[in-house]
Each structure stands twice: as C-alpha cells, then as structure tokens.
Write a structure and sequence with these properties.
This protein is mostly helical. The protein is built from 12 helices and 7 strands. Helix content is 48%, strand content 9%. The strands form 3 sheets. The protein has a 3-stranded antiparallel beta sheet with strand order 2-4-3. A two-stranded antiparallel ribbon has the order 1-6. Strands 5-7 form a two-stranded antiparallel sheet.
C-alpha cells in the first residue's frame, strides 16, 4: 500500500461530489468514490500489453501504409472478424453477414479510437495519428491515454454523466441501471434542453460510449459459451482503467479550477 499519497480528482468527479452533497445520493456517491480511491492505492495495475489486445491490434495494422477500408469506409470482412474475435462483446453477435456495419461492438470500438485521436481515415485506409504512433510503441502510454480520454470534457453533461456512471460501474457487482444514473444527474441539477427531467434514454448514449472501451479491456473468457449473454459489468482490468480515469496520484495537490461556467449543449445545468 502507498502511504501519504495525494490524489487529484478528475474535475467532473469533483463537480459531482460537490453538487450531490446535499442530495439523497451524496453519501452513497462519496463512499463509492472513496472505495475507488482506496483501490487505486492498494490494487495492482494490470500490464497494459496483456489487457489491451483489441486496441493494439488496430494500432499495429493501421501503422505504415494503413489498414485498408471498404469503399463505404468500413473494415473489410476478414479484418472485422479478426478484430471481433478479440472483443468479448462480440460473443453475442452472429457473423452471418460478416460485415462491420452488422457488428455493432466492432464498429463502436473502432469509431471510439478515432474519437480519442488514435486513428484517422486517409485515402481509403485507417492510419495512425501522431498520438496513435506514440501509443502503438508504448502500451503504458496507450493505457494513460485511454484513462485520460474516458470521461471527456468534464464541463459537459456527457463528462459528468460519464464520471457518475464510472463511480457506480467501478464499485458494483451488478449491471448499473441507467434509470438510477438519470435520477442522480437529475438531483445534481441537469435537465433536458426543454427543462424536463432525465430518464435512461438521456444517459444510455454516454454508457454505450464508455462500454465500447471498457468491454475491450481485459482478457476474454475463453470458457464461457459463445451464445452466453454478457452483462455490462467491468472486469478487474477495466475497473483499474476506471480508477485511473477518475484519480491521479500526484505530488502537486493544487486543485484544478472547476469554478468556470458549465458549457451548454443538449443539456443544461440548473442552479
């Protein structure tokens, strides 16, 4: 166990902790965050090369001349199959069509790699960005980049929603219910653009983005039947990534500035 360690919280987590303090969810949310911070200091971090196989597969094949795409911009069927074999979520999908557009977990995973700046499309191929080349050469740096980009912009609904989901997903043995996450964000003060209360439909897009990453972190369970339904419960390696996304062990304990106005988008904060 590390002693006398200082932790810097992701700003989205700080905002949620402060905003929920006087709500019925405040104590529970804070305790979950404390549990995660304790595990960060006591649980070993997995070896990135061993638990990031799908990410490294894409980065390796997108290096050099790039990974060829179809005319419509999708992975070719053989490549989609090979990548799908590395993704646990693909155990739920039949490969009758053998196209990436029909394999939602593969498509969501690859598009997320583009969204976090690791790959880009160029002349009918998938190519590495500068950050992608750095991460391909250094799995530890890839792990850090995935942790740094998992939550996203802390000042938006998506960022604060992601932090909230991760606090619960990282501490439960059951699938997190999005109806409860919606109530928590509602208690924090978020509303739809029209002023209505939130429900699970407002939160699922955030969870789907997170799950496209978390489900790909770890080692697939080779013993489970191919047709077994996989609940959305992060494994031990994915929980380690969650902890690194929410907290950072630092020597400089100066807090980030979280006092700026929250950005307005599809959702707005009320205070």
């Amino acid at each position: 166990m590390r002693r006398n360690a200082a932790l810097r919280l992701n700003p989205a987590l700080t905002v949620m902790l402060n905003g929920l303090e006087d709500t019925p969810y405040g104590d529970e949310f804070r305790q979950n965050a404390v549990t995660l911070s304790t595990e960060l200091l006591t649980q070993p971090r997995p070896e990135p090369r061993a638990v990031l196989a799908p990410f490294l597969w894409v980065l390796e094949r997108a290096s050099g001349a790039g990974l060829p795409l179809t005319a419509a911009g999708y992975l070719k069927p053989a490549d989609a199959r090979e990548l799908g074999a590395l993704l646990p979520a693909m155990r739920e999908y039949p490969w009758s069509g053998a196209r990436e557009i029909d394999a939602h977990p593969v498509l969501a995973f690859r598009e997320n790699l583009r969204d976090v700046g690791l790959v880009r499309r160029y002349k009918g191929t998938l190519r590495l960005t500068r950050r992608g080349r750095e991460c391909a050469a250094n799995p530890d740096q890839l792990w850090r980049h995935l942790a740094d980009t998992l939550i996203g912009d802390w000042a938006t609904f998506d960022g604060q929603g992601a932090a909230t989901i991760l606090v619960y997903a990282g501490t439960t043995e059951r699938t997190v219910r999005m109806t409860r996450i919606a109530r928590i964000l509602d208690a924090h003060g978020w509303r739809t653009e029209g002023g209505g209360t939130l429900d699970d439909r407002n939160v699922y897009p955030v969870w789907n983005r997170l799950w496209s990453v978390l489900a790909a972190v770890g080692t697939p369970d080779r013993e489970a039947p191919d047709d077994e339904f996989l609940p959305r419960i992060p494994g031990s390696a994915a929980r380690a990534l969650i902890r690194d996304a929410l907290f950072e062990i630092v020597t400089d304990v100066e807090e980030p500035d979280t006092g700026v106005a929250l950005k307005r988008g599809g959702y707005r904060p009320i205070r």
